[in-house]
Amino acid sequence: MKIDEIIALVGGRLIEGNNTENEEVTRAFASDLMSDVLTIKDASSLLLITGLANTQTIRTCEMAEVRYVLFVRGKKVTDEMKELAEDNNMVLMETSYSMYKVAGILYANNIQPLY
Predict the structure, then answer these.
(1) Contact in structure between 98 and 72 (CB atoms under 8 Å)
(2) Which one of 34, 42, 46, 57 has the fewest CB atoms closer than 10 angstroms to its CB?
(3) Considering the entire predicted model, what is its pTM?
(4) Residue-by-residue pLDDT tens, the chain, 115 positions
């Protein structure tokens, strides 16, 4: 599923990652525990759905090679997070929807779970 399709489905908005609207995401993982994110072995075309909006999230995604992050529950990306994401070629999105709702919408639209 393309980034712009994900944004439309979850009533979200793109915060970082200009010109990435046509990139594909095939799998998703929802977690607020960054220790769980670090267990990911293959992050290619993976979307992280999280409500943990801080620089540690971006640093963890960098280490786990997760490029796509969707912040839920109305969490806002800070300027520092945006700069780190830009430096690491990441795509950041925001939505006011809950993690549960986002996961359900994406699953119903053929985004596969990581596990």
Answers:
(1) yes
(2) 42
(3) 0.96
(4) 999 999 999 999 999 998 888 899 999 999 999 999 999 999 999 999 999 999 999 999 999 999 999 999 999 999 999 999 999 999 999 999 999 999 999 999 999 999 8
